[in-house]
Each structure stands twice: as structure tokens, then as C-alpha cells.
Amino acid sequence: MSLSVVEAITNRRATRKYTDEAPTPELIDKIVNLALEAPSAFNAQQREIVVITDPAQKQKLYEASHQKQFLTAPVTFIAVARVENEPEDLEEILGTERAERVAGFINGRSLQQAREATLRDASLAAAFLILAAQAEGLSTSPTTGWDEEKVKAAIGIGGRDDRAIALVIAAGFPNEQPEHPGRLQNRRIDNSY
């Protein structure tokens, strides 16, 4: 059942109620693999997707956010930014020559600049994940209302400055069909403000 990109975008709604049916491991793998096809700065791929299906881990996410959909969704995805100025796998990804050129730019960033850049990359992957899930029949609830340090602790990276959380996304087969909430049409700016 794959929807087109246009269908996935126009049909997607934040959904907080899910059926008891869990997506198969193969479907979860497909969605994550599609998410990781998202573009990234220099193709450095400084983002990861954490997949949560364990009830104890879901409880920790709930405690970090008080968002019930993390308890009831069969799967929750966390888009994580790898905030590193010297990624250890850069050469493996880009090859020696290109990695050396890219490293010259990446290494010159401040930690704040690295955080901002890698959060953008992780957010792109999260957006791809949301659309991939929608295309495959799942609904999602992308969230930002959580304590980042508590989320990081819940997934085993507490206290680490080299990782940042972009989005936490509950997902499952929908048990509700929310109506379109509407969108303002005046958000397009041509050429300049």
C-alpha cells in the first residue's frame, strides 16, 4: 500500500490514537531506511533514528514528556543529531579525498554551529520518516514538548553534548481520523520580506 508523496503529504495528520496492531519489523526497517535517505549537509549523515518498541523505554519517554501517545503507540522514533566536528565515519561515507575537504569546513564550526547544522539534518530525516510512515499506512505524532536531557537519558545518551534530539515521533496504525486543521495561505514570501 504505498501512497504517492503528494498523497502522503495531503493526507497526513497528527494522530495520537492507534490500533493495537504493531507494524512488522520489516515495515519499521523500511520506514527507517527511507528516512535515512534524507539529504544531509555534505552527505556527512550526522543523524540517527532510534526505534523504541519496549514498554519500559516507552514509560521513560512518557516521563520525559507526559505525552500519552508514547505509551500507546506501538513504535516511537527519535531523530537524533550527531553533534560532532570530527565524525569518525566521515571517510567511510565520503572517501578519503572528499572527507578531507569536508573535514576542513566541519572542523571549523563552533559546537553551537555543529548543533544547529546537525539538528537540521536530523529534522530532514524526521520529515522523511513521517512521510514514509504515512505512505505505508502508519500515522504519526511528531512532538517537541519534552525534556531533551530526559529523552537523552531514556535512550542511553544522557549527559552527552555530542548528541541532540530533533524530534520524538509516535507512530502506529491510526485509530482516529483527525480532520485537517487548516493552514494559513499567507506564509509564502517571494524574493524578500
Automatic annotation (TrEMBL):
MF (Gene Ontology): oxidoreductase activity
Domain called Nitroreductase: residue spans: 9-169
Keywords on record: Flavoprotein, FMN, Oxidoreductase
Domain of life: Bacteria
Cofactor: FMN
Matching InterPro entries: Nitroreductase, Nitroreductase-like
Family per similarity comment: Belongs to the nitroreductase family.
Protein name from the UniProt record: Dehydrogenase
Organism: Corynebacterium glutamicum (Brevibacterium saccharolyticum)
